[in-house]
TrEMBL record:
One of its GO terms (biological process) is proteolysis. Pfam families: Abhydrolase_1. Belongs to the peptidase S33 family. InterPro entries: AB_hydrolase_1, AB_hydrolase_fold, Peptidase_S33, Serine_prot/Carboxylest_S33. This is AB hydrolase-1 domain-containing protein. Residues 49-176 form the AB hydrolase-1 domain. GO terms for molecular function: aminopeptidase activity. Gene3D superfamilies: alpha/beta hydrolase.
């Protein structure tokens, strides 16, 4: 294992690069990838226990705090040594992009991507713990990080001292169950957005009508289409998302209001930053497949472009019709892979994965039912990404879990409630 140490704002930083199996389930497979982690140690805290943070996503690299003495980490570093990881396929952990996948056949690309789900991520974490000779450690997981913790509890419970999950108790069934609820919640958030910023819905509709008639291009080179415009609604599920979306659409047009009406370059640039997957390609690439094989109820069932199928009812309307025009949330349509230049050459692998039925089970109810690890979870009643009813069902399957069920926060409650991590970990004692 390669290591590198330095000091940042009075904290010792230990970076590690560990070679781990690409396929932890197949010992005969010789392929390996690199797993990167970064440990933060406050002065005088060299003997403190370890806490591993599993970030949301999927497909996003670990936090890169400019100053470790901020947010929940400031509290944690007085009690723990904190490890931030780059989940496999991101950051410094053998990152994946479309360029790499485009050099593979559709079948090869799909097979490779199938090794980057939460079961493999927690196998990497457990490999690191064993390489360090560390005792069971504390886990904190936000959103998809909570999915990872649930997989950890299923596959390697012996490696966990205690765990806290924020907005991330996963459904143990099929993805369609999730998207039926998240699409419904997205409609509610669209309507609430219009209540907060009246007139916004009409402005968004005008943009959609315009690009149905006039070719407009993002700075990335992508032709802006209505399905891609709909994908700008991710922020609807965040605390400050209404404000950000309002500013994005406050003045989208430039020039005259006549026949030469065009979208402004400023708007197109800002919109590209919202809908492009260039910064985190794996987020789009494996998103639906992190739900495949979630539990026995999902075993043997393909995802079959779930978002694409379930969007047809309310999120495929003609912007020139009288029907409401809604932005969607955390839903990836096939156009994300056929139209986004950052995803060029990946749709073949996506099609293969969408029909795959043999994903191994990610969560094991028989293990969770007899769980002995102290766990606490925050479930947000109005969560647009991780539906509360399904999270509460899962909580009923995890023996001993303590749940903070609240309507005070959106999906990013870990950021808006500074004491969230502390409060949840306290609930595990």
């Amino acid at each position: 294992m390669k290591t590198h140490e330095f000091v940042m704002h009075g904290h010792k930083i230990i970076e590690r690069w560990l070679e781990v199996p690409l396929d932890f389930r197949t010992e005969s497979d010789p392929r390996t990838i690199t797993f990167f982690s970064r440990e933060f140690v406050r002065r005088g805290g060299e003997d403190r226990p370890l806490l591993v943070y599993l970030q949301g996503g999927p497909g996003t690299k670990g936090m890169r705090p400019a100053n470790p003495a901020s947010g929940w980490m400031d509290w944690a570093l007085d009690r723990y040594r904190v490890i931030q990881i780059d989940q496999r396929g991101t950051g410094l952990s053998s990152p994946i992009d479309a360029r790499y996948l485009s050099e593979l056949s559709a079948e090869e690309g799909a097979a490779y991507l199938s090794h980057f789900r939460q079961d493999s991520i927690v196998a990497d974490c457990e490999a690191l713990r064993r390489a360090l000779g560390a005792p069971p450690w504390t886990l904190v997981g936000q959103s998809f990080g909570g999915f990872c913790i649930t997989a950890y509890l299923s596959l390697f419970p012996e490696g966990i001292e205690r765990a806290a999950i924020t907005g991330g108790l996963p459904h143990l069934g099929h993805i369609d169950d999730i998207y039926e609820l998240t699409f419904a919640q997205a409609i509610r958030r669209n309507e609430q957005f219009e209540d907060v910023y009246p007139g916004s819905a009409e402005t968004i509709r005008q943009v959609a009508q315009h690009i149905s008639e006039v070719d407009e291009y993002l700075p990335t080179g992508e032709k802006l289409t209505v399905p891609r415009l709909r994908m700008s609604g991710l922020g609807l599920g965040m605390t400050a998302g209404f404000d950000s979306l309002h500013y994005l659409f406050e003045d989208p047009f430039a020039g005259s209001r006549g026949s030469s009406r065009r979208l402004s370059y400023s708007f197109l640039t800002d919109l590209a930053g919202v809908v492009s997957n260039a910064a985190a390609p794996l987020y789009a690439l494996i998103h639906e497949f992190t739900y495949a094989g979630a539990g026995p109820a999902a075993a043997g069932k393909a995802t079959q472009w779930s978002a694409q199928r379930l969007a047809q009812a309310n999120f495929a309307t003609d912007p020139s019709s009288a029907e409401p025009f809604y932005l969607s949330g955390e839903h990836f349509y096939r156009e994300a892979f056929t139209e986004d230049p950052a995803m060029a050459g990946t749709v073949g692998a996506m099609d293969v994965l969408a029909e795959q039925t043999d994903f191994p089970l990610t969560y094991l109810p028989e293990v969770l039912n007899s769980n002995q690890v102290p766990v606490a979870a925050a479930v947000y009643q109005n969560d647009m990404f991780v539906p509360a009813p399904l999270s509460l069902e899962t909580a009923s399957q995890i023996q001993g879990i303590r749940v903070l069920h609240t309507n005070e926060f959106q999906h990013d409650g870990i950021r808006t409630r500074p004491t969230m991590v502390h409060d949840l970990l306290e609930m595990t004692y």
